[in-house]
Description:
The complex is a heterodimer of chains A (286) and B (156).
Chain A: H1 3-26, H2 29-40, H3 42-46, E1 60-62, E2 65-67, H4 85-94, H5 109-112, H6 117-128, E3 141-142, H7 151-159, H8 173-183, H9 189-192, H10 235-244, H11 255-263, H12 270-280
Antiparallel strand pairs in A: 1-2, 2-3
Helix pairs in contact in A: 2-6, 4-6, 8-12, 10-12
Chain B: H1 2-27, H2 33-57, H3 66-77, H4 98-101, H5 103-126, H6 129-151
Helix pairs in contact in B: 2-3, 2-6, 3-5, 5-6
Amino acid sequence: MPRIARALAVLAGAATLATVAAGAATVDPAARGETLFHIGGCVNCHTAKGGATLAGGDPLRTPFGTFHPPNITPDPETGIGSWTLADFVRAMREGRAPDGMPYYPAFPYTSYHRLTDEDLADLFAYVRSLPPVQKRTPDHDLRFPYNLRFGLYLWQWLFHDPQPFVPDPAKDPLWNRGAYLVLGPGHCAECHTPRNWLGALDTTRLFAGNPAGPGGDKVPGITADPENGIGRWSRDQLAFYLKVGMRPDGDFAGGEMARVIENGTSRLADEDRLAIATFLLSLSPP
Amino acid sequence: MFARIVLSTVAAAMAAGLVWQMAEAQQKVEPKGVVAYRIAVMRTLGAQMLAIKTALTETPEFEDNLVWHAQIVHDASKLLVDLFPKGSNEAPSAALPVVWEKWSEFEAAAKRLEELSAKFVEVAKNGDPQATLAAFGQLGKEGCSSCHDTFRKKQG
């Protein structure tokens, strides 16, 4: 190729790159927030079956009692319409309401706190762009002593240490993207890890499965353990499962995971599903 | 005294072992009759779905068979409700009682599979792999998962 042509090609390439970068920067924050909204699974808990989006979810039955996921539409009275971005960040990072009251960890701020500042802002912008719905949700109905909300101050002091996600420089970007999605917005550990009697994740058995998951269901392990995990799945099988819900044997399971796939992982880019699969299959059994 | 403690511990351990074995045996009971037939047909469906996925994502040399697989799924979808006569729920059936309690909803779910699989046959005939994959995903989610979600026991 003549030198001039090569120079032109390089210039054209640079121009394309610049356009792509500029495009990414000018995309509406709410549009970027939509991807986080899907992987975050907000709908799964905060939308009732057949109900308005985010206007409050179906009762969540746990060993600690029944939680009623609140309305998080932008309605100023019954939703989060009066919240500032700072209120939202505090809720997602510290697990505190705007008035400072601690939230129960049924709201997975124990994972969401790993979202970056930019991602939190984008997610907030997206949630704010959804239609407000005026609807009050019932208070939680928990067993003693879990019904004593002030106990959560102690709980958070003991178990909640919000630290930002730190990429592992020894791993490639795909692995790190997967780690971020799984540990942060995807909050996979919240169901796939057993909890202690105080409802905190048993971090020594991360992703080892939970015999008493939400709704009393047994939740399988998702480490690379071939028996109690997904070690026999290939990365492509796992990525495809996250896309359409088909297990390697051709079965289509239902349950909570079907909703996670439908509302969440099936709406991601192929690259993100591959990232999640890459990270999960790198986890050694506890 | 010591002997008594040892003996009772051994007895308790043996009893626990027996309960464990019985639980194991219950899980391994072989299907019979209607339940055996139903499981076999369901496995046939799962096998077609797996074959379709493989042809679409790994072995394009078998793409010409897609319509054949899709047609099997569609034909089987019309048989489904007849595979669930009232009372046919002995172990190891994974059907939930809600199948018979909400029979019209169950019939509607089977009808949905029939419609989705008919649509899938048509899309597969057009031979566009991307469109076929999209229709396959819809068939799996809305035809298979959503019904299993409501009417089948959770699988391990």
